[in-house]
Amino acid sequence: MKSKIILTAFLSVSLMACAQETPKVKHKKSNTTAKSNTKTMKFVNAVDPICHMPTEPDMKDTAVYKNKTYGFCSSLCKDEFKKNPEKYAQK
Ligand SMILES: [Zn+2]
Fold this sequence. Notes:
The protein has 91 residues and is mainly α. The chain has three helices and two strands; from the N terminus they run H-E-E-H-H. It has helices at residues 2-39, 75-83, 85-88; strands at residues 61-65, 68-72. The longest helix has 38 residues, at 2-39. The chain starts with a helix and ends with a helix. 11% of the residues are buried. The structure holds zinc ion. Zinc ion is lined by residues 48, 50-51, 53, 72-74, 77.
């Protein structure tokens, strides 16, 4: 008899879990739109001016020079750019 009560309790819990999952999916959709907004940030340079490697929108090493954002593959390239930005900056 007791096992039947436990089973119904389990069923109601799983049903509640299912009901809670539906709004979570909707919430995920709004998150993806927010993520795509950050991905639209692009660098002025298509390639790393130091090593000529193609830049990715999610690169962490960035430098702003004359209101333009430049992306670099590593902090080493970024430091090199900062030493002589006039040489590497796009006109
Ligand atoms: Zn580089």
